Amino acid sequence: MTLGSIRHQIRIGRSADDVWARVRDVAGLHTWFPGLTDCQVDGNNRVIFLGSGMAMPEEILVNDDVQRRFQYRITAPIFRHHRGTIDVIELGADECMVVYSTEADPRTMALTIGGGTAGALDELKRQMEEHH
Amino acid sequence: MGRKILFVTTDQQRYDAIGCNGGMVARTPVIDALAAQGYRYERAQPQSVVCMPSRSTMLTGQHVSTHGVWMNGVPLPADAPSVAEVLHAAGYRTALIGKPHFEPFLDPFMRFAENRFSREPLTGTHRGFEHFEAATHGGQGMLHYARWLAANHPEVIGMFYPVLDGSLEVNALGGGETGAPQVWENAIPKEWYHTDWVADRTIDWLDGLDADDDWFCWMSFPDPHHPWDPPKSELGRIDWRDVPLPEGYPQTAAEREAILDRKPRHWKAWYEGTLVSNYEAPADWVPATMTADHVREVNQRNAIECELIDEALGRVLAAIEAKGWGDDVDIVFTTDHGEFQGDFGLLFKGPYHVDALMRLPLVWRPAPSSAPAPAAVTRPVGLVDLAPTFCAIAGLPVPEWMEGKPLPSSDTDADARGFERSLTEWDSVLFGVAVHLRTITRDGWVCTTYQKGHSHDGTEGELYSLTDDPLQRVNLWDDPAYAAVRDDLVADLWDHQPAMHQPLRRVEAPV
Q1: B508–A118 CB contact, under 8 Å
Q2: Reported ipTM
Q3: By CB count within 10 A, which of A53, A92, B238, B423 is most buried?
Q4: Model pTM?
């Protein structure tokens, strides 16, 4: 078993609805995920372009406005399994918690992708709180 | 015009890998000559036994807990203090050529500057370096050496050992004549191998300087860190069958197991393949499967890599002489941490604070114009003392944020300036397996206390007499006769151990 599972979370001083509006925008991920240069969306398929020049195909699995949950998987052959999950959890009228979970096989990719997701949460918080 | 500084580092090299420290396999006449002209340290220790924390200590002059790079994969912030910044601000020309590793290598998002400089040329300085050309252990990746190979000799890129396997774990694949892990026959011509490339690029940078420039050049060789894949053309230098087994290698399985049984349980668990606590060794390799011939062939390749480094250093020193700088250059040679190379029946590195990983080669040949009196220094010094030493060479005050002291020139000098102890830290958390060690070396003892983790309840430790047990085989931690020694060392450790940087810096990648 080489599954790696990584979780990062952050409190953001904005309403869950405001933050969820950014997270659910599948074509806008590169605007708050450092190291991504572009996203292209076609139905449930998304291709993200990494700073290294690599293109990474993904399948969007869940984009649930009720639970405020977004799930996707990277379909590139290097992954035997991948599942990314972003949950936006309401903590109060103007505060929420965003949890970004990554599970991957090979497990090394969970660490590598997970480092990027932590940076993405920092950037999401910065943008949401600065533009409040 | 002041003294110039050539700082030479290797990666993962043992104390006994060079001739002047008693090494019997590799021939290292260049380093040996520097040692004969200057200071040779017999108890130089790292503050961490893995690359990123240890290199961050060299650059900052700080203990691991202070700079906060507690494990590979934790980046040193770009605005962290840097001795290169201090020297550059004082007018020194500055360069880092070779392996940096202050930031993670596995970086598909290209979030880290070190990985971008080969495509986006450096403007201004980075960590105080105005010139930055990077290389690591293979021919692939985003660093300058990989891009140079891709542009000029793409046919050789696939000749290197595949550092990662299909699961992106550190590869356990064996090669050579014995099937030893990470041993490989690399058909690359010697002149294109990274050791010569680092020397060539260093010479090129030095050639571009004015004769009256003061300069600090960190020349950082990626070898002899595994994989052990030196150019095939050089393998005839040493026949692996003639390589003696290391003194630290217990030759029977029963002897190895009896020794490991006296140590905290993660030692034996790794040996048996039941616990992999860190990313620094192949996850799929079981040390108990290692044969004596594996050890011989690993050490043959390692020694050849050490010889190539010595010869490359010789070329750089010749270029320095040709520029007329010979009398005014200080040369400091060391490494970031050690390597088991068969000790205890193990290879590679990990949370094991013994001499294999903690006793380092360190040679300082001061500028001949300063008329140094050659000496062997036996008192404990650390890599934390390097940055203050560079300041002292340049005639600059040591900044308050540095925690070390300029290296001593003799035991008398060391005693006068309080070189009593060396501290080394380990913290790792890999997929739920946490290991935490704190070690003090003092008065001929090495003492490690374990904090609570995956395999430890926080009461374990290791205590060895470096005088009576130089191979560190007899753990005295639980021996009542040595309880007072142990308790005194542990108390002294906690009196001097800096608190961990808060908030804890984040792991951003495996390595």
Answers
A1: yes
A2: 0.91
A3: B423
A4: 0.97
